[in-house]
Amino acid sequence: MSAQKTSKKIAIEDLLREPYRQILCYPDSNEKEAKNRLRQLKKLKIDSIILQGTTEIAGLKILGKGCVSIVVKTKLNGRSFALKIRRVDANRVSMDREVEMSTLANSIGIGPKIHAHTKDMIVMDLVSGADLTTWVRSLNGPGSTLKLRTILGLLLKQCFMLDQLGLDHGQLSNLKKHVIVGRKLVILDFESSSSSRRTSNVTSSSQYLFVGGPISKRVRRFMRLREYDTIIERLRDYKTNKNEESFLGLLQQVRL
Ligand SMILES: Nc1ncnc2c1ncn2[C@@H]1O[C@H](COP(=O)(O)OP(=O)(O)O)[C@@H](O)[C@H]1O
Ligand SMILES: [Mg+2]
């Protein structure tokens, strides 16, 4: 059985014990804070979490880990969700801002849908699939270009919608961590987003995809993009004039 398939259900009361307490209070578990977080889980009506995923902390399988939080699978009323828990060493005091930014993205159908939250936790749609970079690297054989074209089109369209909304994701210069390709394409993690900064969703993603990211050579080969000076030119156009016309100009240049 693959690492991703094995799973173990833990009742929330057991999360007060080591090593499970690490889930509640990563990376520095303390009893008082663990109890505080257990109360938040009860408020969210979560009665168990499921240890499953490809990331490990203290030997426990979880869905993922970032600078601000860890993410575990949970079930509520028989349905699976992702539970994002603030790290105790996070450089922010609550998840409030992330909730606000994610809710804004959700208003146009982008990002995992937020279902409930407390100061330190967010319950959201569970997203399954591979990160975009791994997915692009695994493309092989007939139909690859078509699949890639579809996915890149979906991604850039979501980026354009975010630009239009005035919401800058903030971390799309590294697509590996924040774009999941599965049944749908989902942009994750609005913790560094802002609705007051200049938006760079389309330009950061395009830079990664077509110009300088670790998969850009592969993407250019699949899409038969020989020169990239013209792509950079279109990106400049778009940067100065963020409208549908310049966006379509860019899409055309990258054969989407
Ligand atoms: N809704 C989700 N469904 C499935 N996995 C998720 C979800 N949200 C985050 N993850 C996983 O957890 C990792 C860390 O989440 P992220 O939101 O980036 O945390 P941080 O804000 O700390 O950077 C992600 O890279 C991803 O692998
Ligand atoms: Mg992150």
Question: Gist?
Answer:
With 256 residues, the chain is α+β, with helices and mostly antiparallel strands.
Describe this structure in words.
The protein is of the alpha+beta class and 256 residues long. The chain folds into 2 domains: 8-125, 2-Layer Sandwich (Phosphorylase Kinase, domain 1); 130-253. 40% of the residues lie in helices and 19% in strands. Strands 1, 2, 5, 6, 7, 8 and 9 form a 7-stranded antiparallel sheet that branches. It has a 3-stranded antiparallel sheet with strand order 10-11-12. Strand 3 (55-57) and strand 4 form a beta hairpin. Helix 7 (201-212) packs antiparallel against helix 9. Bound molecules: adenosine-5'-diphosphate and magnesium ion (MG).
Q: How many beta strands in the DSSP annotation?
A: 12
Bound molecules: adenosine-5'-diphosphate, magnesium ion
Determine the N-to-C terminus distance. Answer: 38 Å
**How many structural units, i.e. domains?**
2
Q: What is the overall silhouette?
A: elongated
Order of helices and strands: EHHEEEEEEHEEEHHHEEHHHH
Summary tags:
256 residues; alpha+beta; Phosphorylase Kinase, domain 1; 2 domains; three-stranded antiparallel beta sheet; 10 helices; 40% helix; binds adenosine-5'-diphosphate; binds magnesium ion
Q: What order do the helices and strands come in, and which of them pair?
A:
Elements: E1 8-11, H1 21-24, H2 31-43, E2 48-51, E3 55-57, E4 60-62, E5 64-65, E6 69-76, E7 79-86, H3 96-106, E8 114-117, E9 121-125, E10 130-131, H4 132-138, H5 144-165, H6 175-178, E11 179-181, E12 185-187, H7 201-212, H8 216-222, H9 229-240, H10 244-253
The structure holds adenosine-5'-diphosphate (ADP) and magnesium ion.
